[in-house]
Amino acid sequence: MKKFLSVFAIIVLLFPSFAFTENLSAREAFIDDILLEAKALYDAAAGRLQSAHYSGDKYLCKNFTVYVFTKAKNKYRIAEYPDVELVIPNNLPKEESKPYYYGIEWENIPASSGNPFLAAFQFKYDKDFSKKENKKLAREFMKNVKKGDYFQMSADYYYGKGAHSLIFTKDYDAESDSVFWTDSNMRGEKRKGIRYGLPQYDAEKKIDWFVDAFCHKGRGATIYRLREDIIFK
After folding, report:
1. What is the value of pTM for the model shown?
2. In whole angstroms, how far apart are CA 74 and each of 21, 34, 70, 81, 132?
3. Does the N-terminal or the C-terminal CB of the chain have fewer CB atoms within 10 Å?
4. Cβ pair 178, 157 in contact under 8 A
5. 80: helix, coil or strand?
6. Which residues contact 51 (CB under 8 A, 6 or more apart)?
């Protein structure tokens, strides 16, 4: 018995994922696969700026989040629609976003068409409330963040104005009042008219930083969460 336990302990030390993979739900495994793809892109960049200018550039902000989803999705399905390939929606077009700015939310694609996400929480600046009241609502909104959530915002902040997409890598940390995420092209620069973006992984900010980014008239954000009924293909 002692010999068996010793061998098992060695296996766990050498292959920690081997011992625990079977305990993961399909949904949890999908999230881990998405984040592994994001980490691979981050590692491949090795701290260097990457082209984020052309429509096909995978380090462009929305492209980054779509790319890692696409790389990870093939092993998974929605239980109710097991024969339907998973898709991730595009942003809601500018005209359909009015009177708000473009970039707060996605197109409303049904699960029957392969969308595995739900709009779990949303904040839109309410002009009938004061700035202080809106900020309070925005703070509570940010406390709902969970690992694997996709985040879509229309922001006006240090890095510019407009839409940005990212994925949270951990649950909201109440002790530090912070969130952690992976993305690309939030930070970057232009060289000879070409935009270059910096990928990030486990970036960390207080939630007030995000509140200050999207809590403006006409702006807001949405937290998209994978459905609970994700299954292995």
Report:
1. 0.91
2. 18, 11, 8, 14, 44
3. N
4. no
5. coil
6. 57, 59, 194, 195, 196, 197
